[in-house]
Write a sequence for this structure.
């Protein structure tokens, strides 16, 4: 069955890039509604934006969706990952500005709020997007690939010169609440030199040691260090889930990212939908449904950092 939240969720915070305060409310929605954003600071006739792959617009360092009227919402990836990872298929997200609050830099605050509000089953079947043949895109050394698999899996490989990050690789089957337990609390990360450069260009104005893992060579500057030894690659997997959630249905397949980012994952979805016979929507029930993220989760699955 499809799911929505049981009651409204209210969150406030600042945007990572703009530094502007934002108020966000996640509202229950009817079956088959999908995930939509509504800019409450804009005219109601122009402020609705569907969280969908073909609404993704070019942006630096985040995922941004926009509609035909020019209304946009950025930095949606952590919230989208939280919704996908808790099995929420239908919700209306109201926000009074152009950027989702960064909170602690992970998806855990969103997940905790969803689980506290409760998840309500709806009398409508879930349909999954089954990957039928491999599709891959590349940009230089970066690659992103979707291929057939019996469940939903993500693997990722990163390689940074900074010794605090270095080479990291991880693979995870996202069934049985694995996203909540293993990925949700992993924070966005960046190098100190990049932070300084971004701020000089008017970006990352809301960034701090409280909402990102900041590294400088071999040194981790954020107080408390890492939540996981391989937190950076786990966060890349979190981002990938959020970006893949824009497919409009849970994916039955395996995603692999090699030095991939938001833009490349969106290019992969565009290639998937442009390739005849690469995927199909199919009803999902019983044992197959049990393989999807969000099935059987509870607040006990949340990491202690959430």
């Amino acid at each position: 069955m499809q799911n929505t939240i049981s009651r409204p969720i209210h969150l406030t915070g600042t945007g990572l890039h703009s530094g502007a305060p934002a108020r966000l409310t996640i509202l229950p929605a009817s079956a088959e509604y999908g995930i939509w954003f509504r800019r409450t600071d804009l005219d109601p006739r122009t402020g609705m934006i569907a969280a969908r792959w073909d609404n993704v617009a070019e942006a630096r360092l985040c995922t941004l969706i926009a509609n035909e009227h020019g209304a946009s919402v950025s930095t949606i990836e952590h919230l989208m990952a939280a919704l996908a990872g808790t099995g929420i298929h239908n919700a209306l997200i109201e926000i009074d500005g152009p950027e989702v609050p960064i909170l602690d830099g992970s998806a855990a605050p969103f997940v905790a709020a969803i689980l506290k509000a409760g998840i309500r089953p709806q009398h409508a079947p879930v349909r999954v997007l089954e990957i039928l043949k491999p599709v891959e895109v590349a940009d230089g050394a970066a690659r992103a690939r979707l291929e057939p698999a019996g469940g939903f899996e993500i693997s990722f490989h990163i390689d940074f010169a900074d010794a605090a990050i270095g080479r990291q690789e991880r693979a995870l089957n996202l069934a049985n609440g694995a996203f909540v337990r293993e990925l949700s609390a992993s924070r966005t990360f960046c190098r100190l030199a990049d932070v300084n450069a971004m701020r000089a260009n008017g970006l990352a104005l809301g960034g701090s040691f409280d909402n990102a893992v900041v590294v400088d060579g071999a040194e981790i500057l954020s107080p408390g260090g890492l939540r996981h030894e391989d937190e950076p690659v786990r966060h890349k997997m979190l981002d990938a889930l959020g970006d893949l959630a824009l497919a409009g249905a849970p994916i039955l397949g395996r995603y692999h990212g090699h030095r991939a980012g938001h833009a490349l994952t969106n290019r992969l979805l565009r290639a998937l939908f442009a390739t005849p016979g690469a995927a199909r929507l199919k009803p999902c029930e019983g044992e197959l449904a049990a393989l999807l993220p969000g099935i059987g989760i509870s607040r006990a699955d949340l990491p202690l950092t959430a």
The mean pLDDT is 93. The two ends are 27 Å apart (CA to CA). The helical segments are 77-85, 108-117, 178-183, 192-200, 231-244, 262-274, 286-289. Residues 3-121 form a domain with the Ribosomal Protein S5; domain 2 fold (CATH 3.30.230.20).
